[in-house]
Amino acid sequence: MSDLKIGAYICKGCGLGERLDCDQLATVAQRDGKAQVVQQHDFLCSAEGVKLIQNDIDNEGVNRVVIGACSRRAKTEAFDFQGVNVSRCNLREGVIWVRPDEDDMRETTQEMAEDYIRMGCAEAKHSLIPASAQEKGTDNTVLVVGGGITGMTAALEAAKTGYPVVLVEKTGELGGYVGKMWKDVPMHAPYTDPVDTATAAMAAEIEANSLITVHLNSTISKTSGAPGRFAVDISTESGSTTTINIGAIIQASGATPYDASQLPELGYGKSKDVVDRVELEQLAIAANGGPIKRPSDGKEVKKVTFIQCAGQRSEKEGHLNYCSGDCCLTSIKQAMYFKDQNPDIETEILFDDLRTPGAPGEDFYRSGQDKMVTFRKAVVSEVVGGSNGPVVKFKDKILDEDVEEEADLVVLATGMVANSGVDIDEVPQNEPGEWEVSVDSILNLNYRQGKDLPHLKYGFNDSHFICFPYETRRTGIYTCGPVRRPMDTQQAIDDATGATLKAIQEIENAKVGRAAHPRSGDLSYPIFRKEGCTQCKRCTVECPFGAIDEDEKRFPVFNESRCRRCGTCMGACPVRVISFENYSCDTVGQQLKNVEIPEEWDEKPRILVLACENDAYPALDMGAQQGNHYSQWARIIPVRCLGSVNTIWITDALNSGYDGVILMGCQKGENYQCHFVKGSEMAAVRMSKVDQTLETLNLEKERVETYEVAITDIDRAPGLINDMAETIEKIGLSPFKF
Amino acid sequence: MSNYNQEMIEKYRGNFLKEVQDNVEEGDWVKMCMQCGVCSGSCPLGPHWEHPPQEIFMMIRAGKREEVLESTSMWMCTSCYNCIARCPRGLPITHIMHGLATYSKRLGLAPQQQPTAKFAQLFWDNLVKKGRVNELKLGLSLYFMNGFGEGIKTSLKMKDIGLNMLKAGRMTPMEMLGGHSCKDTKGFQAMLKKAQELEEARIGKHGN
Fold first, then answer.
1. pTM (two decimals)
2. Which fold has domain A260-416?
3. Residue of A nearest to B37 (CA)
């Protein structure tokens, strides 16, 4: 690589020229920042300004570009220079917009700006240009696990875009749960009547598609490798195993209906005429459009009662705590099986809360009402045997009375349980080098962290509900359908389409060694200095994405294309042997060390803010746009994730005389907002131990604060900085100023 | 109890919702209620109803025929239309309430002592005679609705207002002697008779 050459460019637009002494900033860049090329421009993001920089890159050999202008989140396209590292000094959102334009503030505002220039140059000096991961993806094939409606949709969608597909199905036929239905909830207007399921047509389409290979009666006995080059062992019932090279994996393993035999209080198992919703589909198929007959004596059903939330939304032992989301629509559909055949059949749906999500929802509910299905808000206490059929005992919540009603048939609207494989937090991992196939596992990953995708809640695979729904905590493996949350057919189809796009995106990313969401396009990857490693395993355990395996000697083995570049491993490493080319203990450590710490008698404190680049930093930027001011003592460094914060930075900061340190990360826990899922949680664990460090340094523990900041906290985030400034005023400056 | 009521009971055999749908004005809307309770919460007289509209709808669906039809509830409706304006499902609740009241009266199940029901009958009887409401007679019949003694008492209580109205020319005692009528009383009554026939025919056609 050519020699390091820093070019610093200072913009005078957007009021920077009026508020700051730009000549002085240029001097600082040259004198302190050691920038070989320093230029000022009135309008740096203009075509002319960009050309100026590009010219220096092309002709002057500048390979580290330091831009003193707006936030790194602004003008990203203008300042997107290839083949060099760009450091952005946030003089606009980070300095002039957060400070009042008053004469007596000029000095401290200028100090802020100068520090940011020093920090930018320090980052530039200590960073390397990412060379992109050495591991490159070679395989285009999409593996779809599960041949239900979700999996079939994913397979067809992937094939339509020209990617070869391998579809693995555990049973002997495609179709899954939907394939066993008599009819389905309509997916197109008018949402009035049940429609034929799409599975048979889809299965035929899959059969006819030359890009799709189907493995029936097969399971996955081993998945190894990384995105773009997975090796997957597909085993058949007879015991033969084929290994296939795969680019990305879509897990559409769906859900299993809840076992109704756990509901004896609702008469299941005691009376043959109490059935669950799967059995009702079978009765409807047997009736084939004619009158539905009840199982006990084959009598035509004249009165049917549906019990919603059977074994669901309940805290009782063995019940599901959650709403399965589709049972209300399903019961309405099943009630129509009766009403459409004979409008005189009494159909009653006993619900506590009726929820009909999705496009068909409300219209389909109305259609049910229109067909004279009776909806009754009620809580069912039990179902007992009667002389002519099961008797349902319930309390009508509108009429506030206890009712006992006999029916010919009772249908329990039971929920769904995710087929999410083994819970890796519970199942012990295989020792490195020793491999054992688990029959309960879906993917049988040979990853250090376990055989399946991590669960989040209620046994569903972890994937963010709103922001990044298909991303799991294993790069290149995407979940869709009811394995990630309860959903109906329509939603599962939409979900499968989304996951397919993510899978294709990852295949393409892996080919060029680019990172996936949320650091899309990042070419850096973790570099590991083995000589210094103490085999402590923190990185392999803490990596939120299971990207790091272990060799027999317990040294970490990095799988670059599984890595999402959050830096949690770097933050975890006690001996600091893990770094990225453009983001390391040094690039951040040198930034904070290059801030000028005034002497004690200047009475100018310094507050270091390490802010998550995904939420906290944008919140501060947006706060600045809104005119929210904060303390002139703050110096903010964006970090990839709070999980990447190595405690050495805190120690360094306190040792170099900072008076306070604030860490701003995302919400953690069940409703996490962390883009790297576990990063902020890991950081919180680490920072809980920072108190000891403070104690050894004989410092007050108020000097280090960790906060959860959401992207919407545009008023609160600046306030937190001001709070720290106040605290410092109270407890006094740090004694560590030399 | 009328034969008509017995006929209906036999015809619908417990399916009261269907009975309402077939016989009550706007009754086919009842099945569309989603039990949100906005109507009951919106009714200015809500707390005074025996069963607010939401409950009435649920009772219909639960087949509580007598309880609904003998109820005083729907007679409490003052036609303020708050419920109609607010119903998220667009049910014409006010009309359904009047429809239910009418139907219960037709069946002979309407409560005998409900003041609104009584007044409605007085108003009707008064109106059909001359095609115009005789306000003096209507007022007096209202005073004496619950007996002679109460009638005298109410009259005395209202006498100042009455005298002032006389002075201001807003009321004439001559109205007691027959009172004024519409231009063509015979025609008006023929019209009512025809309407009655049509109504009977409509009910007959539905097989009542």
1. 0.89
2. FAD/NAD(P)-binding domain (3.50.50)
3. A398
